[in-house]
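Now read the record:
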Amino acid sequence: MRIDRIETFATSDVAFVRVTTDDGAHGWGQVAPYHAALTAEVLHRQVAPHVLGADALQPEPLGARVLEAEHTFPGSYLNRALAGVDTALWDLRGRLEGRSVCELVGGTPGPVTAYASSMRRDIEPAAEARRLAALQERTGSRRSSSASAGSAGADYYPWQDGLYDPPLTVAGGAVAMPAGPGWGVEINPAWLRSAAHRVSGRPS
């Protein structure tokens, strides 16, 4: 089973990766959200040429292959792009075996502890603390993260809305993970249609 096609669906905020094999199986991955469209470009230029045609069920050697081939141009964007392919291959394997990625790495599926994150940077720290306490109360989270200094910004990341089908929800301080194979989620088709789509494929 060989990697036949790698697609990215990207905006400036988020990018998903779909890896498809020569027999039509596929898996979804994601790159880090910061300047995600740039990471998608790096994926097509510096990762795809080295992994197209590789065994999709043997992802472990691919990272070393890419990093060795691109040793003159290392860095965070290369690793972020590589992670998009790696996570897609884990999803693909989970779908083929009918198991979650959690099970593939030796874990037991279940709710994942969530933490409340408040990113308001345009208010005083005391007001931010009150907002964070209310957020914890609303979601049941016992852990939190905040940033109350620096440039002004939104209090949440609106680009997260509508990404997954079904949507992920937080209740009782945990994210209820879908029971499906692989990562257990599909990417919202409406979001995919709105993103910049690019394909790298094996020569025919």
